[in-house]
């Protein structure tokens, strides 16, 4: 199952497959379409964690301690506040270890998303909230729910995401994991920690005054960008029965989809196809001017409509605009939904506002 | 002048000043607020270059050649298309060189934006467009105008951006620079190159068939993220006369501003201040739920209104919501503009849709 997903993702530019020469094992990088997906995922993480509705969170460079001091001062020594960091990092495996690892992972389908992609691409995304001891436990629970909701919000099957039980250490530190259940086993995604004496900061730094002096607790969420990316690829994969055959596709959430709109053309002769091609290009420019990521492949009309749809479904594009002979007569276009395969008809002048409306909400 | 800008930027978390111990020279990193600004700049670059209205551009990892092959295949061997890369890189100076460099730069105010920030933070942003020889020259000119327009769009004084004359090499390669004119001299920002035999790709790769076989030309735009960041800080700096004094502020474009909205409170007694504080917090949550980056500093009301405004102006926040005693009676709030210092009155229930409208367009 996982192999099938990785194959389809590589075929469609989400991943990039490289054969390790000696041992003939496939290794995966992020492909061009995958980078678009990753960019959307980063942005949604940013919206959820940094422009977080409850607490002011400051982004940080690698020096979290400096940022902490800045934030503490900025907030006039008042809790709560948070700091967040996105940090590229490398894991150093030697290549024999990598090969051994891949072999085992691919054979048993028991692997960790974090390790499947080549390691130079990895990015740690970490957010730490500083909070008074009185509020820390209730906020820890709220934060758990909020983060699980984030994973569910973008999922084609939200039920697969769950929180582990809380594991406590002797010093009072509590750990919770968010994981996703797949056919091939459970996949750990994110770690949440409530720490009553965070060693990354000095006890002097963590001292705050509110009526009396106390030491701030920290609540930390930690996740890898490549884990998020691979999870959204696996989550979106679907094999749906369709007209006696199987339809393979990626059901990306519309906020995450690398491309939001594509074009399918069907014309009876060369002249009308050329005209439809120009119309599609014009509509594509209009959509892109509104920052809607739009795919237009010139001359895609040489393929049948079904193969055009198939390609777009496998790229996970939520809606395809169908232009045909009638469009040139009456200006009516069809908007085909990837998920339902149904079409609705709208006038060509209404495309941009209609698409904006479709993509506004979650 | 530059020193004054760097001071103010460091004071407000856009930059972070570190004193090099032995020689007592200041060195600069990006501060927490600067990271928010940088994030917005990256996003706008992404919108302009990747979701570019004319040509399909694919993001790339470090292996541009792989991405090229993918893109060529994806576009059924048809020109034009493009690939774009964001790549972290380090410059290796030894520390004596750095110190020498900084000394000279700060003294003479003749420095290159790229080199002012610590080097580990630097990111190269590069976009290459592949195009037929017939169209390359006219597209090169169009691309120059388009990129200059991008710089001007976000500027408080667009006149300072200009294109250099075209410099041609013997093999036909053409270079153009976009630069900005400051008090302390001209600052080079972006390089545009039209290359007729791009050596980064094999002649086999660059061969396309369109009626007959030909070699694609490439048009490349190259810029550093730290250059963009420092330029937008310097561009936004302003010293405006105001009520017999001088008002120092950053006039960030509303799409770039690290925070879009802040709150100023003014109340006559403790009870009404506490109520206004709760209202501000509620409005802040509403705005953030709509992904509007909003700053709320609890208990900022201990400062006078003027000092609150001063802080927000120096953070470059375009609008501040003023809540006062009347707000509790009739629900009217004032929205103060950073640029004009004028206020307009709106009802509290209209804040979110009104702010969304303010920030929708460029």
Automatic annotation (TrEMBL), chains A, B:
Anticodon-binding domain residues: 275-357
GO biological process, one term: mitochondrial DNA replication
InterPro entries (UniProt xref): aa-tRNA-synth_II/BPL/LPL, Anticodon-bd, Anticodon-bd_dom_sf, Gly-tRNA_synthase/POLG2
GO cellular component, one term: mitochondrion
Superkingdom of this protein's organism: Eukaryota
Protein name: Anticodon-binding domain-containing protein
UniProt organism field: Phaedon cochleariae
Phylogenetic lineage: Eukaryota, Metazoa, Ecdysozoa, Arthropoda, Hexapoda
């Amino acid at each position: 199952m996982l192999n099938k997903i990785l194959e389809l993702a590589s075929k469609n530019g989400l991943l990039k497959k490289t054969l390790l020469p000696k041992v003939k094992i496939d290794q995966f990088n992020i492909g061009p379409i995958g980078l678009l997906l990753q960019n959307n995922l980063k942005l949604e993480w940013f919206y959820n964690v940094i422009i977080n509705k409850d607490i002011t969170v400051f982004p940080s460079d690698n020096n979290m301690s400096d940022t902490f001091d800045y934030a503490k001062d900025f907030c006039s020594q008042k809790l709560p506040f948070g700091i967040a960091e996105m940090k590229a990092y490398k894991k150093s495996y030697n290549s024999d270890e990598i090969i051994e690892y891949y072999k085992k992972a691919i054979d048993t389908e028991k692997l960790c998303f974090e390790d499947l992609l080549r390691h130079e691409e990895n990015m740690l995304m970490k957010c730490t909230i500083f909070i008074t001891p009185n509020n820390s436990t209730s906020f820890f629970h709220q934060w758990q729910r909020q983060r699980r909701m984030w994973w569910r919000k973008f999922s084609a099957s939200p039920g697969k995401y769950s929180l582990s039980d809380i594991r406590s250490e002797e010093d009072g530190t509590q750990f919770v994991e968010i994981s996703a259940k797949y056919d091939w086993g459970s996949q750990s995604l994110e770690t949440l920690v409530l720490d009553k004496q965070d060693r990354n900061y000095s006890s002097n730094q963590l001292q705050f005054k509110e009526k009396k002096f106390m030491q701030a607790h920290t609540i930390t969420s930690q996740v890898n960008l490549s884990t998020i990316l691979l999870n959204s690829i696996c989550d979106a994969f679907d094999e749906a029965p369709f007209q006696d055959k199987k339809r393979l596709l990626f059901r990306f959430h519309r906020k995450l989809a690398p491309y939001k709109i594509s074009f399918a053309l069907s014309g009876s002769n060369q002249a009308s196809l050329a005209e439809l091609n120009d119309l599609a290009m014009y509509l594509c420019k209009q959509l892109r001017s509104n920052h809607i990521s739009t795919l237009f492949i010139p001359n895609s009309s040489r393929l049948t409509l079904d193969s055009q749809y198939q390609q777009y479904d496998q790229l996970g594009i939520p809606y395809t605009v169908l232009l045909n002979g009638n469009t040139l007569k009456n200006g009516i276009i069809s908007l085909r939904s990837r998920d339902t395969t149904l079409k609705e008809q709208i006038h060509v002048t209404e495309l941009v506002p209609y698409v904006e409306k479709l993509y506004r909400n979650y």
